[in-house]
Write a structure and sequence with these properties.
single chain; about 475 residues; alpha+beta; 24 strands; about 30% strand
């Protein structure tokens, strides 16, 4: 079996120092946090299973390293761990759960207190040992074992370095993503770019800061498919996320943690390229949008508060910077919703003139995704975290932006983070009713039936409706449940 030395993993830990707060609170009720960065780049030669056009591709080199970013949180005895990985998607539920269960044991957490999500690069390794007989497939099992070992080692160490921090939420915009559902003149729908349709440009940031004002971590939630690099690329790459991370960490400092948003209908304009320079240019767009959002706010990391009117040539509303405050509430919840399922049948799509290996790859992918749901209806898991007044909603599907936009419209004053491809193997797209009527790719590729997106959205709205608007005093932390064996 391949050793960690062969795969060249490394762990880099960053911790915070004490940070004063304008709220009166004991140190025990303040948020504590720590971060780690793990190099999860697989070996060159591993199987790539990203594009049906090139089902036998192997990695020939590395554009930028693939990283795993860990963020540990603790408030008044409650603990939670966020793990964001530069990987594409899980096709096997048992293999996904094996990693998550190992992390739960290593960190001694209850299941709802862990979120493992993927940035959704389309230039990463296969995560399915079912590809073992493909070119480079013999490396997959050893890679998954090493991935689990090193992430668990990092997770176990984090809790020794927790320090008080404050959190400030920012909302901005980024123009990178466009709607990717395009109807051609002949009526066929393709995955491209549709300039006539609006695209969600919301950028949500969370700054975790030290006492001296420097950044411990910056969490970035944005919805865009990392599909800059297409079937012609054979370099391992985090796609646009890698360059964005480089920009932000160089300027801001700390650890850049990217959370893939509700991007089922969103992609960059420039995509399907074989030139890694295009991935870096798309990363520029995201990275500089993050910096622009941060630059428009106080340098102290706080917020602006209206303090009065100054009479001049015009009545001037005066705002002053308010220092960031410590989060005093951390709650984690696991909920389920039952969704109807369908047969996701690529054979029903016109394949005349299509290469046989493309048809076969479509069928294989459809079968693997459908194996992650049950017949007729399936139990779909949602993980919900409350961090102060902010809400994080994570799920294992690929939801359209309708989900995030609807939640944010209902709660415009509350930071809302929606994370696709989290805590579970890929269970398909969650597309609107119209996509099923039109026969769009996300509808016929998904084993989830029409109405699933709308049902999930209503379920999440009910969950959010039960959350108080304010941040009341903390009660006693819950007792730890038994972690997976």
């Amino acid at each position: 079996m391949m050793s960690l030395r062969d795969i060249a993993f490394s762990v880099n830990e960053t911790t915070g120092v004490e940070l004063t707060s304008t709220r009166s609170s004991s140190a025990a009720s303040m948020m504590h946090a720590a971060t780690a960065s793990v190099d999860i780049t697989p070996p060159v030669g591993i199987h790539l299973s990203n594009w049906a056009l090139t089902p036998d591709a192997i990695a020939t080199g590395v554009h930028r390293p693939l990283l795993g970013k860990l963020l540990a949180l603790k408030v008044a005895g409650r603990r939670a761990l966020l793990v964001a990985l530069d990987l594409g998607w899980w096709m096997n539920a048992d293999e996904e759960w094996a990693l998550r269960a190992s992390l739960l044991r290593a960190a001694n957490l209850v299941s709802e207190a862990l979120i493992v999500c993927l940035t959704h690069t389309h230039a990463g390794p296969s995560l399915s040992t079912s590809d073992r007989d493909r070119p480079g497939g013999r490396l997959i099992a050893a890679y998954l074992a090493a991935l689990s070992r090193d992430l668990c080692a990092a997770a176990a160490k984090l809790w020794q370095h927790l320090e008080p921090v404050t959190v400030t939420w920012r909302t901005g915009t980024c123009g990178l993503a466009v709607n990717r559902d395009l109807r051609l003149p002949d009526g066929r729908w393709v995955v491209g770019q549709n300039p006539a349709a609006a695209a969600d440009d919301t950028l949500v940031l969370a700054e975790f800061r030290r006492a001296d004002g420097s950044a411990l971590a910056l969490v970035c939630n944005y919805a865009v498919h990392p599909t800059t690099l297409g079937a012609g690329n054979t370099l391992l790459s985090p796609d646009l996320v890698g360059r964005a991370r480089e920009i932000v960490e160089e300027v801001v400092g700390g650890s850049f943690v990217f959370l893939q948003g509700a991007s089922g209908d969103l992609s960059p304009r420039v995509q399907y390229s074989s030139d890694v320079a295009d991935a870096d240019r798309n990363g520029d767009a995201l990275g500089y949008a993050v910096l622009s959002t941060l630059s428009a706010m106080p340098r102290s990391g706080g917020t602006l508060k209206f303090v009065g009117v100054v009479e001049s040539g015009a009545p001037l509303g005066e705002f002053r910077s308010v220092p960031p405050t410590s989060v005093k509430r951390l709650e984690c919840q696991r909920a389920t919703v039952t969704l109807d399922t369908q047969r996701n049948d690529p054979e029903g799509v016109d394949s005349a003139g299509m290469a046989a290996h493309v048809v076969a790859a479509r069928q294989t992918r459809a079968r693997r995704v459908s194996d992650n749901v049950t017949e007729r209806e399936t139990v779909f898991e949602v993980t919900l975290w409350r961090i102060g007044d902010a809400i994080l909603v994570a799920h294992p599907g690929e939801a359209y932006s309708y989900l995030a936009q609807t939640l944010r419209a209902r709660y415009p004053g509350r930071p809302i983070v929606v994370v696709n491809l989290a805590n579970g193997a890929h269970q398909g797209y969650l597309a609107p009713h119209l996509a099923y009527q039109d026969g769009r790719y996300p509808a016929w590729q998904s084993p989830l039936s029409a109405g699933s997106l709308e049902r999930l959205t209503e379920h999440c709205l009910r969950l959010l409706d039960d959350i108080p608007d304010s941040d009341p005093p903390l009660s006693e932390p819950p007792t730890e449940k038994e972690v997976p064996k």
